[in-house]
Design a protein that fits this description.
mainly alpha, 71% helix
Length: 233
């Protein structure tokens, strides 16, 4: 026997709540990194502050970013399923995005792109993953243009703005932070200011995308009700 469990999502409220969480994590990063790198509190050790570092895999910020990407991926997959139930055949774009967001969520905590950087450096390739990721993102973006044009204007705009913000942080700003590694300045407050900008752009980009996705899924309604059936003994 299965019992339905419902979750209600509000397209106008949820993004603002997520944005507040992102702002809090950004503030904590800036303050804690300042206290540590500017030696304001000399007794502080890295083990005590790294959990607030947005550049560390084992931190609150990384967990939050991974959850954001996972939520987006799951909602995209649900939207794909809803379209198929209505007999819509053009679901490839939704499928690719759903899988892509799930992959990005895994990468956020597993650090696959950091591993790729390490592999490239160990083989003296002289390039970073951003040199590959940038052109790849541009190609994928161009391939999605016909799909985007079929969406409502507001949804399309929010998707594009969200994508530009996310890639601006993940590719452009990270490309600039590579210079700090070359200069041997990774362990400086200046570097962590750039990290704050990079991660903030990524988080806000996903939140803007989620706003567009939730509004699209809700249509004229003020909320979305998701139903899950849980087994009951």
């Amino acid at each position: 026997m299965q019992e339905p469990y419902t979750t209600t999502l509000y397209p106008r409220r949820l993004p603002w709540g997520l944005a507040l969480g992102a702002a809090l994590l950004l503030l904590l990063h800036l303050v804690v990194m300042w206290l540590y790198f500017e030696d304001v509190l000399p007794a502080l050790r890295w083990a005590e502050v790294s959990i607030f570092d947005l550049d560390t895999e084992e931190s609150f910020g990384t967990w939050f970013s991974a959850v954001l990407l996972l939520i987006a991926g799951r909602l995209l997959w649900l939207q794909r399923g809803a379209l198929r139930q209505r007999g819509e055949r053009r679901v490839l774009g939704w499928t690719v995005l759903a899988v892509g967001f799930h992959v990005l969520s895994v990468d956020e905590v597993a650090g696959v792109h950091e591993y790729l950087n390490h592999m490239l450096k160990s083989h003296d390739a002289g390039i970073r993953w951003t040199a590959i990721g940038g052109p790849l993102a541009a190609v994928v973006g161009l391939a999605f243009v016909p799909w985007l044009l079929r969406l409502p204007a507001r949804t399309r705009a929010l998707f594009i703005v969200g994508g530009v913000l996310y890639l601006g942080g993940a590719v452009l700003v990270e490309r600039w932070t590579d210079v700090y590694e070359d200069w041997g300045k990774l362990y400086t407050y200046e570097y962590h200011l750039w990290i704050a900008l990079e991660e903030w752009l990524e988080m806000v980009g996903v939140i803007v995308f989620l706003r567009g996705l939730l509004e699209y899924m809700a249509g004229e309604a003020d909320a979305i009700t998701l139903e899950t059936r849980l087994p009951v003994a």
